[in-house]
Model the fold of this input.
Amino acid sequence: MKAAQFAEYGGPEVLRLAEVAEPHAGPGQVRIAVRAAGVNGIDWKIRAGFMRDIIPLSLPAGTGIDAAGVIDEIGAGVTGVAVGDSVFGSGSQTYAEHAVLSSWAVLPAGLSFEEAAGYPAPIETAIRIINQVGIKSGQTLLVSGASGGVGSAVIQVAIGRGIDVIGTAGVSNQDYVRSLGAVPTTYGDGLVGRVRAIASVDAALDIAGSGVIPQLIELTGDPAKVLSIADFSAPQLGAQVSSDTLDMAGALAEAARLFTEGAFHLPVDQAFPLQDAARAQAVSQAGHVAGRVIITVP
Done:
């Protein structure tokens, strides 16, 4: 089968299409014929070598953790799904014609493979960090880096819980953030003053890792109410970090339920065919995306 691989760490250009052996579903897993794969920040960080001490790889290696497709193989002990079912979920080496998923949910009616492929990592991360930072209904949450996949998911999950949201994004994405139900503002110099002119903030989430932890602490007045998923120096200032997946299966089920209720949507900002996986990662790495970048597989 065809899959995107890299034989050395480096820029997007090291990611190339290769012919590899098909994977097979082990116990508690399903294999899918991939229709679309989500592009996440962790993908390009692994490819660039930033995670080599945390996630050691034998090269050449495949890439990708999120995908949607049709089940064509079921591992021992799996119940509730059958060959031919359409699902979306999380696994490994998903930039490929076939991939094995370890967590999944049945694709709800009306949800496309392309959009669903962008759900897993953002929805799990959103639920986890909202819970971890301890924000409650009736309070105000600041999301720094609100227009990407995780930020978009955070806004919608938080609003569904009765939380008011202020989201920072680039000038071109202000209307997009507003369309999700948040009050938008720009990032950069003067952030503290702009946010205070909107509302007082009870907690803040740093999605982009753009060096704003001191400003977020100033706005919340409490380092423990600031959490980052991208700046691992945050604990040096008393803030939290979060990186470990806790309940992917539960998050996928929640995403399916919210979509069915019309309360969750992650638009596809850009889609690339499998042979252009390097371009897809380059776009993801550059940032400024409104929604998700995905890879389509014929």
